């Protein structure tokens, strides 16, 4: 009987000279591209200008990468950010923090919504964030699967039958470990399906902030517990009662609870323009 899974997948799909295409980069890009197709569908169903998704994509890409990069150095390597700040925007872009990406995305969507909410499209901050978390969850599933292909962010040793031996990770090879990346990838994909169903049921009558709140509670609530199954990312975490991922997940969950409670205390108001567009469509 197989006691564990030998994982020795090549992280590179192919390379030409010094240029290589890796599974992580492909999955990262696919998360955005497929996600924007879904956002286009949502915009169309709710009678928003589909062309706005191009602008939204730019905001999302820039906000995600900058937020994730700055977050990584701020939370895990602050000395690098202090002495070599240009490292944030220079290749190979090693090190991305999901908590930083979340802050970056929320900031980017706030800036995006400021341009759109005063127009007839009425794309308020909470309207946009409630829809974007659907595709963020899908992107998260792709990115965490990319981490698995890279044999990084590995779990702690375990004797469970689905344990992975990460042969391409010299530091952790030969010891069966939790496939923590796979746990988080599945978690993200499940919440993607849940949020897509939730939106499909309510569409423009979705309580404002409810989907954002559900996303934050689900993703970072489970992230808090998954951290117990993962190796710490930096040595100083070994001395902490909770690691950085757990500490940062607590305010995210509390924020999610706030948005869920707030969403059901605030009635959804459909503007006359939206009602007219809905009837005409």
What features would you describe in this structure?
The longest helix has 26 residues, at 125-150. Helices cover 60% and strands 5% of the residues. By secondary structure, it is mainly α. The protein has helices at 23-45, 52-75, 78-83, 98-116, 125-150, 180-202, 210-226, 244-265, 272-280; strands at residues 5-7, 12-16, 19-22, 164-166. The chain contains 9 helices and 4 strands; from the N terminus they run E-E-E-H-H-H-H-H-E-H-H-H-H. A hairpin with a 2-residue loop joins strand 2 and strand 3 (19-22). It has one domain (23-154, 182-267). It is globular, with a radius of gyration of 20 Å. Strands 1-4 form a two-stranded parallel ribbon. GO terms for molecular function: phosphatidylglycerol-prolipoprotein diacylglyceryl transferase activity. Belongs to the Lgt family. The chain crosses the membrane at residues 23-43, 55-76, 88-112, 124-146, 182-199, 211-229, 241-261. One of its GO terms (cellular component) is plasma membrane.
Q: Label the overall shape.
A: globular
Could you describe the largest sheet, including whether it forms a barrel? 2 strands, parallel
Kindly state the number of beta strands.
4
Count of helix runs: 9
User: What are the secondary-structure elements, in order, as H or E?
Assistant: EEEHHHHHEHHHH
């Amino acid at each position: 009987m197989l006691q564990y899974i030998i994982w020795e997948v090549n992280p590179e799909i192919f390379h030409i000279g010094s240029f290589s295409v890796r599974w992580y980069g492909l999955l990262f890009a696919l998360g955005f591209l497929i996600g924007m197709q879904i956002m286009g569908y949502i915009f169309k169903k709710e009678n928003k200008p589909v062309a706005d998704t191009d602008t939204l994509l730019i905001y999302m890409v820039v906000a995600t990468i900058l937020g994730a990069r700055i977050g990584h150095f701020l939370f895990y390597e602050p000395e690098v950010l202090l002495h070599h700040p240009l490292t944030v925007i220079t290749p190979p872009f090693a090190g991305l923090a999901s908590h930083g990406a979340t802050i970056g995305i929320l900031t980017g969507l706030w800036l995006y919504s400021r341009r759109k909410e005063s127009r007839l499209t009425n794309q308020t901050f909470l309207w946009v964030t409630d829809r974007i978390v659907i595709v963020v969850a899908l992107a998260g599933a792709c990115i965490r699967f990319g981490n698995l292909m890279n044999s990084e962010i590995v779990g702690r040793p375990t004797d469970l039958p689905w344990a992975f031996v990460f042969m391409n990770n010299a530091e952790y090879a030969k010891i069966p470990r939790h496939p923590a990346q796979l746990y988080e990838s599945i978690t993200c994909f499940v919440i993607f399906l849940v949020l897509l169903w939730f939106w499909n049921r309510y569409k423009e009558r979705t309580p404002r902030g409810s989907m954002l709140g559900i996303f934050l509670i689900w993703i970072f609530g489970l992230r808090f517990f998954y951290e117990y199954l993962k190796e710490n990312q930096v040595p100083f975490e070994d001395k902490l009662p909770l690691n950085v991922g757990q500490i940062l997940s607590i305010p995210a969950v509390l924020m999610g609870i706030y948005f869920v409670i707030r969403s059901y205390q605030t009635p959804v108001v459909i503007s006359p323009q939206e009602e007219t567009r809905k009837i005409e469509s």
